[in-house]
Amino acid sequence: MSPASEPAFDGKAFVRTLSTSPGVYRYFDADGELLYVGKAANLKKRVGSYFLKPRMEPRIASMISQIARCETTVTRTAGEALLLESQLIKSLKPRYNIMLRDDKSYPYVYLSGSEDYPRLAFHRGARNLPGRFFGPYPSAFAVRESLSLMQKLFQVRQCEDSYFRNRSRPCLQHQIGRCTAPCVGLISVEDYRTDVRHAEMFLEGRSSAVIDELAASMEQASAALDFERAATLRDQVAALRKLQAQHHVHGASADMDVIACRIESGLACVSVLFFRNGISLGTRDFFPRLPLDAEPGDLLAQFVAQYYLDRPVPRELIVGEEMPDQEVLAEVLAEQSGHAVEIKHRVRGDRAQFLQLAQRNAQASLTQRLASRQTLGTRFDDLQKLLELAEPPKRIECFDISHTRGELTVASCVVFGPEGPDKSHYRRFNITGITPGDDYAAMHQALTRRFRKVAEGEGAKPDVLLIDGGGGQVAQALDVLHELGVAGITVVGVAKGPGRRAGEETLVLADQGREIHPGAASPALHLVAAVRDEAHRFAISGHRKRREKARERSVLEDVPGVGARRRSALLKAFGGLAGVEAAGVEELMRIKGIDRGLAERIYAAMHP
């Protein structure tokens, strides 16, 4: 039986077959695409609410009209159902669910372990290194700001181990008073360990205890007539007290996140204020996908479940709205984290002020995003009119080429949609097998590699293809699309104007045999220029990375007897090619497997 002749889904009959157990249900359309994932404390009652009510809201009725199949999974508890729902939403990305679009791992402050002189460092990724991790922090900026403070207050080293092990004299950080130079033994292991312990206490939120210890040490130094050390400790205590006054948030618990959301014009913003150890770590804004006009409470419930599913959970969550199944969610998070978790929506005093601040942040960020989206919408509409398209383009791709005198050519592809750049679809192509400097051949190769997948039925096809260049580059694009049999794409060349001045670009439509000069006031040209500039930036950054990598290895590759393993050992020991270049023959001989003859050859190659 063909899909067209299959009987319509009988929701009422299906509901009669369900149990009253907790579980998860999934709706599919006729093509097998997942529409929606939901949880239920009572499957029969929850699924029945979609099909047994006489009238439904238009947003829900639209989804129900597409349902061709429903699958359910029974769980032991409502908490397991909530957990499974969040996992399925994150992995399957159903069309009608609220979806948190945040794949970045969070940054931490890392304190290395099992060393005489541990280091503090920025860390993002798996926490499987020996030592301690403090965080997570809401942004890389917050981590780097904390590390900068650590340098000023406690002077614990932050340099790479390879750099630290190969110092023969103090670096600039010591000279400006931000490191005690353990690399050359200017501080004892015991004194350095004391500084590390104070840094740990500070990162744990025990700044008052650090101040008390330092004040006691200051008095002892003064009594022993060691006035220079006493003055140093006095300045350290003063700096800590000043920092404490600036950053400590009275009334905040040791660990607390404050979460507020705003929904407007089909967009949603969730703003989170992070507090750890009574100190504010700043805010972070999220813009979840909102296919249905969900209520703020539903949005917050989905956000909290998805966001904290695989992240550390603070002991207290303050939310702006009461959430469905709030108690169940708190129990699940407590079980996941191994400690009690409270979720509150009615708060007073300082917590109410924090919540108001989060709500203002959410509203301001949403207003800014809406203004940006409206500007983009105007530019997309103007581009439709300029190119005489049937409708505004939904996907724009732009290609650019970058090289240095033909060396290590890189092609870039950037993607823009109605909401701006879609960086998850950016691509770079390392160009090989062409005559150096032949931009036409480079463009032909990059476009072939990109659109071969489209011809094979894989990947999305752009509505507009921008090429940085004039008629010759556009001709390459048209040839590739013709060879691969890809149709339905408007190809536009972006040629620089006289004097390469912005706003005077010419848009080349070679397939239509015409050129367009929109002018500096054209919103469509503003959009095209923004996409072109982003492609240019992405291509240049890729070329520079490839060139730096090649140049870092090329000199050592030319030395007989230096293979991949020895080259790696050299670069690791000396912290890069500059360190190898600065090393003498005796220092090079300290590397395992390098005798005097080889060390002299390396030195000669580095100093032609």
UniProtKB/TrEMBL annotation:
The keyword DNA repair applies. Residues 258-481 form the UvrC family homology region profile domain. Its main location: cytoplasm. Interacts with UvrB in an incision complex. Residues 208-243 form the UVR domain. Belongs to the UvrC family. This is UvrABC system protein C. Keywords: Cytoplasm, DNA damage, DNA excision, DNA repair, Excision nuclease, SOS response. The UvrABC repair system catalyzes the recognition and processing of DNA lesions. UvrC both incises the 5' and 3' sides of the lesion. The N-terminal half is responsible for the 3' incision and the C-terminal half is responsible for the 5' incision. It is found in: Cytoplasm. The keyword Mitochondrion does not apply. NCBIfam families: PRK00558.1-5 (NF001824), uvrC (TIGR00194). Residues 20-98 form the GIY-YIG domain. Gene3D superfamilies: 5' to 3' exonuclease, C-terminal subdomain, GIY-YIG endonuclease, UVR domain, UvrC, RNAse H endonuclease domain. HAMAP family: UvrC (MF_00203). It comes from Dyella lutea. It comes from the Bacteria.
